[in-house]
Amino acid sequence: MTVSLVLVLGGTTEARKIADIVEQAEGLRALYSLAGVTKTPVLPSCEVRIGGFGGVSGLATFMKANRVSALIDATHPYAATISNNAVQAANSTQTPFLRYERAQWKANNQDKWQSFETVGAAAKSLPQNGSKVFLAIGKKEISPFKTNIKDHFIIRSVEDIDNKELPPNAQVILDRGPFDLSAERTLLLAREIDLLVCKNSGGTASFAKLEACRELNIKVLMVKRPELFDAPTFNDIDEVLPALRAALSS
Predict the structure, then answer these.
(1) Quick one: pLDDT band at residue 1, thresholds 50, 70, 90?
(2) CA–CA gap between residue 159 and residue 226 (Å, rounded)
(3) Residue 42 above 90 pLDDT?
(4) Is 82 helix (H, G, I), strand (E, B) or coil?
(5) Do residues 11 and 33 touch, judged by C-beta distance below 8 A?
(6) What is the pLDDT of residues 184-219, one digit of tens each?
(7) 227 exposed, middle or buried (CB, 10 Å; 0-12, 13-18, 19+)?
(8) I want to staple 208 with a disulfide (CB 3.0 to 4.6 A). Which of 29, 95, 184, 194 is the partner?
(9) 59, 50, 49, 48: which is closest to 82 by C-alpha?
(10) In this structure, what DSSP letter does residue 144 have?
(11) Do residues 71 and 15 touch, judged by C-beta distance below 8 A?
(12) CA 144 to CA 230: how far, in whole Å?
């Protein structure tokens, strides 16, 4: 039986599940790829590759050399560079391509959300009046807050952050989701949080912080998702095999 190699660009909980589904399917084999940003990632059961590709041409060369039959982008919704590189590499190699995209969170009439195009814009909007700000944006985009010497920051991260990268008044909480509502409510109350800054990542693993903010009437500064190149997209993990089979047969 011919086995088709499916390259899964990962880094999310859903990506690991997708890789496992593909790996266990008849006639398919998964290769899970990570950029290598997280030092201790949770991995799927299939073969894993860690490290960058070297842009569009590097990814295309890798796909040709390894006879990749299909490419699935299941990276974080804010990993715009690799997502757009993947579309271009798939087009240039004529490789079937699919993107998994979490549904975005939506505010209801009880939420106090303010939307921003970028993390930098959200940082500039802070009151700088001694507010206590919970940053749930990942470790790579802390720099826009470094010049804020007045507000106090609680920063949650999977891995520690160098003190040189932090705002003057900051404390790092090392933790990995998923997080439940009770724990998030307790954290916000214990730290007396006034504002939350986060990205619209979607999914269930980190939604509880928004529910807690809703209950506690805490304002949320929500950073919008980046624009991605158009691509065939699915939003439910259960759709991956039918979508993949269809793409491979077309």
Answers:
(1) low
(2) 24
(3) no
(4) helix
(5) no
(6) 999 999 999 999 999 999 988 889 999 999 999 999
(7) exposed
(8) 184
(9) 59
(10) G
(11) no
(12) 29
